[in-house]
Amino acid sequence: MQVGKVYLVGAGPGDPGLLTVRGLEVLRIAEVVIYDRLVNPVLLEETPPEAERIFAGKFAGNHSLPQEEIHQLLITHAKRGLVVVRLKGGDPFVFGRGGEEAEALVSAGIPFEIVPGISSALAVPAYAGIPLTHRGMSSSFAVITGHEACKASPAVDWKGLATAVDTLVILMGLKNLPGIVAQLLVNGRSPETPAALIRWGTTGKQEIVTGTLADIAGKAATLRPPVVVVIGEVVSLSEKLRWFEAPCLTVEMLPRIRADELASQP
Ligand SMILES: C[S@@+](CC[C@H](N)C(=O)[O-])C[C@H]1O[C@@H](n2cnc3c(N)ncnc32)[C@H](O)[C@@H]1O
Is residue 262 part of a domain? Predict the structure, then answer.
C-alpha cells in the first residue's frame, strides 16, 4: 500500500492573509487536517469539504491531545495513504514542537514536508508598529520562551539576554511575567526599558499595552493569553508606527491561486 505524506504547515499568527502560498496549496489538497488552538479557523474553510478535521488544540496546562497521540495520528493517517496537513500556529519550528513531530515521522519512515509560517514572534510586533531591529536602537533580537523564568536552573541564559541582546521577544510569557522582569532587572537591564504586551496580535481582537520594565507586570494583571511580550527601546516606536486597526481579514480576501481562476483571467 502506498504511504501518504505529512505536511507540517505554519498557519501564521492569526491574520489568515499571512498564510503562505505553499500553505494554501497544501490545505487545498488535504485529506486530513490536524490543527491547533491558535490556528485561525477560517483557514479550515480552504480544505476540501470531505477532508477530516481533527482538533489537537492545546490549552495552557491542559493538553487536549498528548504529543505522543498527535504523532500517532499523523503516522496512522499517512499509513492509510492520505495527504495529512498538520496545521500549527505561527511557524512549526518556533516553539511549536514541529521538530518533535518531524522526528517521529522520520522514525516511522513517513515522507514529510515543512511549510514554514510567519511566526507570531515577528508578525505580532510588526502589527503593533514595533520593528525588532532599528538603526541606532536595536541591532539584535532574541525569541525566548517565558516558561523558564521561574525555574531554579532555567534553560535560558537570562544574564546574557539582559545585557547582550537589544530586543527581547517572549512567547508564552504572560504567566511568568513578574519572574521574567525580575530576571532581567537583577541581571542589569534598566527599569526604564520600554515594554509592550500584545494580545491576539494581527487579528481583529488585537490589544496593546505599553509601559516599562518597572511597571509592565502590574499592567498585565487583567490580560489573558495569547500575548507576545516585547522588551527593548524599539517599543518606543510603537505609538508613531502603529498602523493596524482593520478587523480580521476574512477568507474571501485570501489570494485566489486556483489554476482554473488563473486560466479564466483575460
Ligand atoms: C506554543 S507558542 C507557539 C508559537 C508559534 N509556533 C509561532 O511561531 O508563533 C504560543 C505562544 O505564541 C504567542 N502567540 C501566538 N499567536 C499569537 C497572537 N496572535 N498574538 C499574541 N501572541 C501570540 C503567545 O505567546 C502564545 O502563548
Answer: no
Indicate if 88 and 18 belong to the same structural domain. Answer: yes
User: DSSP 3-state assignment of 8?
Assistant: strand
Q: Are residues 14 and 107 in the same domain?
A: yes
Give the residues across from 144 on adjacent strands: 170
Q: Is the CB of 228 under 6 A from ligand 1?
A: yes
Q: Give the Cα separation of 18 and 5 in Å (integer).
A: 24
Nearest-CA residue for ligand 1 atom 25 is: 171
Given 5, 15, 36, 88, which residue is catalytic?
36
Give the number of domains in the chain: 2
Question: Does the pLDDT of residue 245 top 90, yes or no?
Answer: no
Would you say the CB of residue 14 lies under 6 angstroms from ligand 1? yes
In this structure, how many other beta carbons lie within 10 angstroms of the beta carbon of residue 162?
20
Could you give the angle at the alpha carbon of 254 between the alpha carbons of 99 and 130, nearest 5°? 65
Using one digit for the tens of pLDDT, what is the confidence trace for 84-132? Answer: 999 999 999 999 999 999 999 999 999 999 999 999 999 999 999 999 9
Q: Identify whether 170 is part of a domain.
A: yes
Q: Could you give phi then psi for residue 52, rounded to 5 degrees?
A: -85, 130
- Distance between Cα 82 and ligand 1 center (Å): 29
Residues 130-142, mean pLDDT to the nearest whole number: 98
Closest ligand 1 atom to 120 CA: 9
